[in-house]
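Help! Submission page says 'invalid entity' but I think these are all valid:
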Amino acid sequence: MNKTKREAIFARFEQANPKPTTELEYASVFQLLIAVILSAQATDKSVNLATRALFKSHGTPKKMLALGVTGLTPYIKTIGLFRTKAKNVIATCQALVEQHNNEVPRSREALEALPGVGRKTANVVLNTAFGEPTMAVDTHIYRVSNRTGIAPGKTVLAVEKALEKFVPAQYQLNAHHWLILHGRYVCMARTPKCEVCAIADLCEYKPKDKTTAKKTAAKKVIKKAIKKVTKKVLKITSKKLTA
Ligand code: SF4
């Protein structure tokens, strides 16, 4: 994809949504951090449902730490992987209280040293709370970046680096929010809504037509069957030879 197309795409995203942000609900950097930890492999909606009650009564590192894993679990048990997340959240609260004076650190290194915080979570916090132009590549951004041709890459990190390189400077801060929202509501995994997509004329996605897809599937079935028969014949032949 060329520079002009990328600029046009982000200009349209900006026009449609000038101030994009996360759909996670939070009232402090600490709450954002906890919400992002909880959102791994879960929807923002399910996280918001759980954190509304949790943040109301235990919205600071000290108060959440006081809950312990047992006290925290009932609040988050509707979220996937809640057992591991409960342990990580409490361990993170402990680190914030003991090592960071109850504050969320601003450096990537210190963030990634917190339990349950990986590169993506650190990127979300650095971007959304501290205004740094980081790219938090999730499944939606990975798909949209590759599909459209905006920032192709074979791994999440490769896409992150490609976005840093190719997204025009003035759109870097908001780029990951626009791409997440676009992937979540328009450029969906199975059935992208190309017919209503605002960047359809600029997108370089080439969907496989149904006939090609069917032919590929049929070829796979035949190949598997041949492999199975060959294996059987070889087995019978070797039995006969040893008899
Ligand atoms: S045209 Fe289709 S594939 Fe391209 S970005 Fe829009 S929805 Fe996605």
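Support: the input was valid. A stray whitespace character was the problem, and the output above is from the cleaned input. The chain has a mean pLDDT of 92.
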